[in-house]
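Give me the fold.
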Amino acid sequence: MKPGLCSFALLIFFSFACYSQTEKKEWQEAEEFLKSQTYSITESRDLRLLGKEIRLRFKDSATRLKAAYLWVTRNIRYDCEGLKNKNSRWALDSVLKSRKAVCAGYVNVFRNLCEAAGLECVDVSGYGRSGFENLLVNRDSFATNHTWNAVRIRGEWKLIDITWASGYTSEDCSSFTFHRNDWYFCADPSRFVWDHFPNDSSWQLLSQPVSWQEFYRYPLLYQGMIENNIEDFYPRSVIIERKMGDTVVFHFKSNRPLNRIILSSRKQRQLYRMDIPDRTRDGYRYVYRIDQKGSYDLQIDLLLVENSRVLGSYNIHTFTDIVYWVKAL
């Protein structure tokens, strides 16, 4: 398989999941099994042995999947140096020896481990929208730049981005930090398609697949969407065209407690505003007046801010981050 040179520059990740008691038990059993695994895994035959042990230990496919997922997210780090030198690792033995990979290497290890554990797993290639450089995408710029997995569990296909679930890089991809992010484990297909567009639309796993024309119009969605459980948002288009003095009404569907909104811009450094959003029946609403002329990014952060015991400081517990492109005439 030809490796995809994908990178991700999402600076802050949160793991958001609400598991049932059965699922919590499955995670716990998978954790306990991995703690008992002591031999070194440095080549493909070691990985196959681990998969066989997972298969023998767990009869249920869901627990097998969790064990495979936990092992990869804990043991493979993103190959920032290889990406920059265009010498990134993706071949199975190379990844296992170095414990470094880009997305193609992650999915290669994960697929092989899943298959050894008796799970049906396939690679899915397409476009992953992950960093500020992907803010404006057009019809002609589509190119395969990312790979993820689909796994069949209890007769149903599930989407997993094992790379993005493992942690995050610094914005310039100079360093990687392990931080498990279960948003991308058995992800909701309707939200997974916000930043993943497969070459084969059937792998969206949606009854009505999203078209490329619809996908590239989405705003850039950062991982604060996870922490605040943003289920929907408006406007849906990345480009906001208005005249000076016009207003834009933003809507965010979420059941999370939020009490601040920050609007800022990388390009227009003087643009900064912190305000209180309006609470609605199913989320939040904010009316923003266009008072900066030109074309620029507009970053929106929703926060929960509580007063600290230290006068004049704040404890910021949650945030979201959506980026639009404003064209103000």
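The chain has nine helices and 19 strands.
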